[in-house]
Amino acid sequence: MQPEPPPIALAGMNRGSASNQGVPESNHSTEGDPESGGEVPPEAGFAPDPKPQRTSAKVIAIHALTIRGLREAIPGLIAAFAWLGFSGGLRSFGVVGVLLAAVAAIVGLAALSWYRFTYQVANRQLIIAQGIFSRRVRTIPVDRIRAIDSQVGPLHRVFGLARLKIEAAAAGTGEEEAVIDGLPTEIAAILRGELLRARRRPAASAVRRGTGDDGDGSRTTEVGLRPAGGIDGNHQSEGHTGEAGTPLLDEPLEEVEYSRSRLSWLLYAPLVGSYLAIPLAGLAFLSQFVDELPRSWFSWIDVDPTGFTPGQFVLVILALLALLAIGAVIGAVFLNWRFRLVKRGDLMVSERGLLTRRTVSVEIPRVRGYMLSEGLGMRLVRAARLTALITGVSNANSRSQLLPLGPRSEAVEVAQRAVRRFAAPLRRHPPAALRRRLVRSVLPGAVLLVGGLVLTVLPMVVVGAVLAGLGIPLGIDRYRSLGHGSDGKAFAVRSGSFVRQTTVMERRAVVGWKIQQSYFQRRAGVSTVSALVGAGVGAYSALDADSADALDLAAENGGRWARELLPTSRR
Fold first, then answer.
1. What is the extent of the structural domain holding 472?
2. How far apart are the first and last CA of the chain?
3. Do 152 and 59 meet the contact criterion of CB atoms below 8 Å apart?
4. Do 202 and 343 fall into the same domain?
């Protein structure tokens, strides 16, 4: 169990000396604003930093190597190179001169971007100012911070730096609310822990730390966070309370581990399509450069595929499949190395990654349910993936992994411990749902088969017969995957064959119910009932359920307003 890093000691100061350079008035609340002349209320919790802070200058090298920040200067560079081209300056510079000028421009832009970036914590707000030519200022109230994710890539690891991504409420744009890139890893951990502590600290827990004479007859009250070790580690705050006896909540959070990956779980990767796509994408990328390479490099390869025997052809196929499997395992290693899921206070924190180490957190009260995904190959070895269904944050998919890959039993246990226990049995759907699954699975092959017979095209007949035959077990499996249930506080729906998904959602997340019934469904006595929620994909459906069961599911989990869907005799 790793202790949470100590918080930053943010010392209070005179309001008149606070500096919020570059921060427009509209980005601050009027209460306690430096330009409003108001005093900091004792409930503020955060005292202002003395001045805006910059990140480590080492990040200039990272931004220069990755050519970050060049996008802002592209119009100016295009204009400069166009002017040089028309004036003949490019010839006088030469290729080496142009390259040196480009390198100087990249390094200069990286340095200017670093110099123009500042961050500051003041008045319970995180203030970030950035931009080379277009100045942008973001002000995020601390109590609106939903999560702070940490990333340490290969270059960041070399320079001992980290990158923080701050997710705030009502972002809704699909972009990070704020990014602080280039903090030393120790400072990043301290700042992240302190902001998360301040986010969960009630406003009334701020402490009047002392008063003093400023020399002009006035007395300044310092209001801020009581340090729990501070940067120098000379203070302790465990057990301290405010004047009213309110705990400061600065003590280290207890950590509860939900899951930790094992090396044997990596063997499941070749059974997951998303991991198989990693080596395929790599091969597609490399194939773009093969034609540009000298043919003399491949002169040692003397293979004629047309001369392969059936046995050799099978061996080649097996070798390619083995390479794909190895590539999938390697991809899983890079993405999920040393995966760990823990609970810290009211946050659920996951850590994973080999070259780029990512730490992602989400507020537990915002988790509304979970989804258990089992691909066709994963079901053969009883493996599964587990994701949380989260409300109120952007990029929820990137922070929802509770178990990227592992045994199904482990995924179920993590779901029960980290989200909620759901033990109600799932109700099977009527035989009419089986008939509809079979028709949909067999129909494409049957149409192709009939078309081949009419047109007397043997390949169409063969392909149609094969597809129609495979459609029968596919339809049966799709029917066996159907199910729904409810335990009074949550409901579950299940569907899918190639990827079977079981979704458990709390009833409090439902904002509406939709019941659909087509002409053929009405004749079969089945309906599709969908729960409209503010998490995940937005709607989860029980397909082709018995019409009476569909109404009951909506009425049981939708509150009194959903009972209006029931017939009058059953209300």
1. 431-570
2. 52
3. no
4. no
